[in-house]
Specification:
314 residues, alpha/beta, Rossmann fold, 13 strands, NAD-dependent epimerase/dehydratase, NADP
Amino acid sequence: MVAPTYDALKLPAHVKTILVTGAGVKLITTDIVQPPNHGVTDTNRLSGIMSGGAEANFALGYAVNVDSNLNLLKSMYNHSLSLPADAPRPVYVFVSSLAVYGGPKCKPTDYVVPKDTPIIPGSSYGVQKTIVELYAYDYGRKGYLDTRSVRLPTVAIRPGAPSSAASSFISGLIREPLQGMEAICPIAESIDDPALDNMPFWCSRTKTVVRNIAYAMCMPESNFKEGEGRSINIPGIKISPRQIIDALIEHGGKDKFNLIRFQKDQAVINICKTWAGEYDNADFLAMGFEADDPKTGFALAVQDFKDELAANQK
């Protein structure tokens, strides 16, 4: 077995490896190419430039979403060479996105059956995710690493500041008003706009997504059928922007709705139009992944965020 090659970086003098321990958790801050790895083998790759940002800044999107992932794959494999010959291969979980889909079968009103739907990304972000999925697949196919790519639905409700993702407003319509801040709805010009009903999104509760990403790391490799790839669609539920606004009113009151400003953003709309509103979960549920209840899942996501706000105020 021959290791993939790469040009080693000359690290600046300020780069250090910091190991923080406590409560059974280890946090390591380091360069990813040639660090001491403190026995770490398995990896979840979570970071990236989101859809809107990757579309707006082509070079940055590729540098972060493609090049850094390839460096990490190479680094992981080089570290694996120091393991005993009979040791399990390190697990690499690449957190991808349903943005890999696009084309005529992937409009907001479409129902996607993954096996029957070609990968035709409608954004630079989707292309970048597809490229890394293929890299990861090949590292798995060659036996270098035990690789898995998990394609996330829209995650709700994301904490923190708005991101550059085109779907960021899905969380923002709940997150900002519940904190007394204005939120922008970029796909509609008023509460009467039919886009609030005609542009559904495929979403999952944050807790469910975290559970499914963790499961992807420990899932038996035998769950993958030979010749069928190593990519997994994390299950989701369909939710419309109007249902999100209704949930805001239910959980926050009518006054919170008044904090929503309708302001169409064509760049956001163009990206969102390339995303299907619903996917078949069956194959991935059979692999052991979990889905939210379609009737209660989004309400629970809102309640989770409210609970987090309350905890932070104590």
